[in-house]
Each structure stands twice: as structure tokens, then as C-alpha cells.
Design a protein that fits this description.
Rossmann fold, binds ligand Z5A
């Protein structure tokens, strides 16, 4: 039986393309929530548990498949959901159940953007997987929106220090344009959950805006 994933009031996700600045914003959100006296678990996808981090390694390894073999879009999607199933059950739900806030760098919206928009998989298939595998979804999603060229330029700078782009980062600009368009379409379709933040500005300005969006959203909660 499938279930509609329920929103949790202390579950916040961050989304965006490459180089949008999610990592920097995540630190600012965590600090703001902690300053208000909350326990905060900050985590990421794919990943967030030892097994899910191993799946992440497979997903991002440019040599994950053998010579002459490619990673099929369906395989990529199912591995994302395998990691997510583990992450939700072993990190996210236990944290929420003990009263913590969870701030997650990417969640199911990324599967829609990358495997749906980017790879062309049917959104209904992704929704069906989410309904079976993921019993929860964020009640606030901050989408850090930046142009593909600007975001990729930032990520290139960071990757130089880290040994080069991963398997997904090697995709062409057209792929990332579809990813961005899918994120923006999802935000437009669900304005109550999403806040779109212009991430083309300096990092401290973007982080301050994200914290303000979180605070405004919290104040508006019943
Ligand atoms: N993926 C998927 O396909 N399907 C899914 O369901 C999920 C994920 C969950 C790994 O995610 C990959 O998994 C990702 C999507 C896919 N692939 N791609 N491409 P990730 O989040 O770990 O990877 P990422 O998006 O590539 O991370 P990123 O490039 O690190 O993005 P970020 O966290 O938003 O950026 P950052 O690390 O904060 O900043 C990058 C650099 O830019 C760094 O040097 C910063 O100092 C700099 N930066 C950040 N903000 C600014 C501003 N505002 N101005 C100037 N410079 C800045």
C-alpha cells in the first residue's frame, strides 16, 4: 500500500544546483536554530548514515560502472532512494522523534530535478517510489537558485582543491539547465513549502536571507 509522505514541522530541506552555496547556508541555519535553544541535526543526501554514505560513494564515482557500462538512470534513481530509505529510518526519523530539528542538504526534490528533469525519468515513477519508501517530507524547502554558469564556476573552483568533478558534475550544461528548470517548476507548484532565494549574491547575503526566511516561516506557524 502506498502512503502520502507527511510533512514534519521540524524538517527543513535545502535544494539547488551545483555551487548554489547549500553548505554555507546549512551552517547558518543550524546556528540560528541552535541559538534559539534547539537540538539540530544537519545532514545530507545522498548520505547521512554509514551505509547511505557508501551508496553516495558509488553514485558519485565516475568509475562506478565497468568499462563499456554506464549507470542507467533507473539505477541511479533506485540507489538515491536506497540511500534515502536508510537515511530516513536511521537518522531523520529518530532525530525528529526525540524533538530535534533536521536540516537536510537535498531530499526527494533533488531526485525530481536530477533524475526526473535531468535524466528524463517519469515524475510519477519518482512519486510512486517516494510514496512507498519515504514516509516523510520537509515542511519548508529553501531553494537556492543560481544560474548554471555561475554555479558551475564556483563548483569548479572548489573541485580544483578536491581532485576534480564527480560523475554527476561531469554532465553538460543542458542537463543542469533542466535540473534548474525542474526545481523552479516545483517551487512554483508548491509555494507554501518552498522559498526561492537568489543565490547569485555574496555568500553572507544569501545566508542572511535564508535565515530570515526560516525565521519568518517559523513565526507564521500556528
Ligand atoms: N543528487 C541526485 O542526483 N539526486 C538526488 O536525489 C540527490 C542528489 C539527493 C551530490 O550532491 C550530487 O547528488 C549532486 C546532486 C545529486 N550532483 N551534482 N551535481 P551534493 O549536494 O553533495 O553536490 P553538489 O550540489 O554538487 O554540491 P555543491 O556544488 O557543493 O553545492 P553547494 O553545497 O550548494 O555549494 P557549496 O559547497 O556551498 O559551495 C561551492 C563553492 O562555491 C565553494 O567553494 C563556496 O565557497 C563557493 N560559494 C558558495 N556560495 C557562494 C556565493 N554566494 N558566492 C561566491 N562563492 C560561493
Amino acid at each position: 500500500m502506498s502512503i502520502a509522505p507527511r510533512m514534519h514541522p521540524r524538517f527543513v530541506s535545502l535544494e539547488g544546483g551545483e555551487g548554489a552555496g547549500k553548505t554555507t547556508v546549512l551552517v547558518a541555519l543550524r546556528s540560528a536554530l541552535q541559538a534559539a535553544g534547539n537540538e539540530v541535526v544537519s545532514t545530507r543526501e545522498p548520505g547521512g548514515t554509514p551505509l547511505a554514505e557508501r551508496i553516495r560513494g558509488l553514485l558519485l564515482d565516475q568509475n562506478a560502472a565497468g568499462a563499456g557500462e554506464t549507470v542507467a538512470p533507473e539505477t541511479e534513481l533506485l540507489l538515491m532512494f536506497a540511500a534515502r530509505a536508510q537515511h530516513v529510518r536511521h537518522t531523520i526519523l529518530p532525530a525528529l522523534e526525540r524533538g530535534a530539528w533536521v536540516v537536510c542538504d537535498r531530499f526527494t526534490d533533488s531526485s525530481h530535478a536530477y533524475q526526473g528533469g535531468g535524466r528524463g525519468l517519469d515524475p510519477a515513477f519518482i512519486d510512486a517510489l517516494a510514496a512507498q519508501v519515504v514516509p516523510i517530507r520537509p515542511s519548508l524547502t529553501l531553494l537556492l537558485d543560481v544560474g548554471v554558469a555561475q554555479g558551475r564556476e564556483r563548483a569548479r573552483g572548489r573541485n580544483l582543491a578536491l581532485g576534480g568533478p564527480d560523475r554527476i558534475e561531469r554532465e553538460r550544461d543542458e542537463f543542469f539547465e533542466r535540473v534548474r528548470a525542474t526545481f523552479l517548476a516545483r517551487a512554483a507548484a508548491e509555494p507554501a513549502r518552498f522559498r526561492v532565494i537568489d543565490a547569485s549574491r555574496p555568500a553572507d547575503v544569501v545566508a542572511a536571507d535564508a535565515v530570515a526566511a526560516l525565521e519568518a516561516w517559523r513565526e507564521a506557524q500556528p
